[in-house]
Structures are given as structure tokens and as C-alpha cells.
Amino acid sequence: MNKNILIGFLIFVLVAFIGYFIWQGIWKNNPQFRKNEHAISNSQMRDDVVIVNPASSKANSQNVLSSNLNAVHQKDTGPIGWNTYSNKKYGFSFSYPNTWSKSQNDINVGDSSGNIMGMNISFIDTVSHTTFLVQYRLTRDLYDYALSQFNSSQGWYASGAKQIKIAGVTAIEAFTAIDKNGKGDLITPRLREILIDFPDKPQTGSFEFQFQTPLFNDKREVTNLSYLLSTFRFGN
Fold first, then answer.
1. Cα–chain-centroid distance for residue 133?
2. How high is the mean pLDDT of the chain?
3. How far apart are the C-alpha atoms of 71 and 58, rounded to whole Å?
4. Confidence of residue 26 (pLDDT cuts 50, 70, 90)
5. C-alpha torsion angle, residues 31, 35, 40, 42 (rounded to 10)
6. Is there a contact between 180 and 186 (Cβ–Cβ < 8 Å)?
7. What kind of architecture, by CATH, is found in domain 82-234?
8. Is 100 helix (H, G, I), strand (E, B) or coil?
9. How far apart are CA 22 and CA 2, in angstroms?
10. Which helix (H) or strand (E) holds 6?
11. Separation CA 195–CA 212 (nearest Å)
């Protein structure tokens, strides 16, 4: 009995062994079997692997590039939400942060004879304590004085002063740190002050910008000033 069971088991193993080799021969010689197996493998992979569509990838890259270009173009008009100051009488405009408050009216500036020689307009941020004063004069006095100081490296222009472009004209920028007021009293916190002078479009008048902000937040506020300058435009 045990002998018959052993013989039957050996026959079963032999048949299984022969069947395995027959199956391998059929699989290798029949490409249809391999194709189906490959399809099943890919189907299983799709559950775990994200397949990138080249066309979709290109579109996403273009969207990112478009966003970056929009960010660059915002430099021409200031960040989204900024306000715009426009002076039609003297022909200029610029954008400024919406946290700044503008003085109610432009202030006319006259000479001793009562003739109007220009105007002033001021802005203040009550949170950051930044102030910004715009002076425009019908003469070149403001710019010519700054230019002479710059060329001779005097006063504020002795160190760190530089020439920059504003609306296509050459401007002179100088800066300093202020720790005392006009009476000689200490100021807390210290202030960063920047002066910018440049001629108007016909080169007959001049502008002077006076910018002040506490030193502890000057990096952010000076960045705002840079945006503002990039939005400055002369009228027609």
C-alpha cells in the first residue's frame, strides 16, 4: 500500500515537471502571451505611479512662466492694490502703497512776489511711520544743487550717493541715518532718510523726493520706495 502511494506521488511530480517545461516553451514562442502579461503589469503600475503627460507638463511650465512675467510687469504699476497719484497740472503720476495716507491737498509754493513756483505733496504711513514728501519746482534749482553736491562729493553726497534712472531721466540718490532732530535732540528709533533729485521731462523744472522710515523696518519700506520709483511717469 505504501509502495503504491510512493509510486503515485513520483508520477505526479514527474507530470508536473514535464508540464512546467511545456508551458515555458509555449510562452517563449507565443508573443501574444507576453503582450498580455505586459498589459497586466502596466495596469497594476498605474495604481501606484503618476504618469506625466508631456503636453500637460509643458502647459504647466508656461503657466509658471506667465505668473513670473506678471510679477515682473507689476513693477510698472506697483503691487496689486496700490493707489495712484496723478498731477495733471504738472504732468506726472506714480503709484504708492495703499497703507499710505495722502495729505488732503497739494500745497502751492510761491516766491517772495507771490508767484507760484511749484507744489508739495506729502504721504504718511501711520503704522510703519514712513513719510514721503514730493517737491516739484518750475526751475531746476533743486536738481542743480544736488548735482553740484554730488559732483563735489559734499554733504549727503560724500559717501554712497549714486545716479539712477527714473522715467528715462538721470536722478541722483543720497541717503543717511538720522539720530537727532533739528534741535539736536536724540531720535528714537533712528531714521533712514533718502533724497532723490531729478529734472522734469523738458529739463526746465525739477523734483525732489524726501523719504524717511525707521531703521528697524527700512528694508521693507525701501523696497516699497523702489516700486514707487518704477511706476513714476511723466505726462504727455
1. 25
2. 77
3. 20
4. very low
5. 140
6. yes
7. 3-Layer(aba) Sandwich (3.40)
8. coil
9. 31
10. helix 2-29
11. 9
Domain boundaries, the chain: 2-72, 82-234
* Preceding peptide of 189 cis, ω within 30°: yes
Cell of 155: 554733504
Amino acid at 100: W
Distance between CA atoms of residues 194 and 191, nearest Å: 10
Cα separation, 99 vs 125, in Å, equals 6
Alpha helices in 91-140 (DSSP H): none
99 backbone dihedrals φ, ψ, rounded to 5°: -90, -10
Report the share of the chain in percent with pLDDT over 70: 67
What are the C-alpha distances in Å from 177 to residues 186, 189, 195?
Answer: 12, 11, 12
Q: How far is CA 76 from CA 72, 88, 165, in A?
A: 8, 19, 14
Please give the grid coordinates belonging to residue 231.
511706476
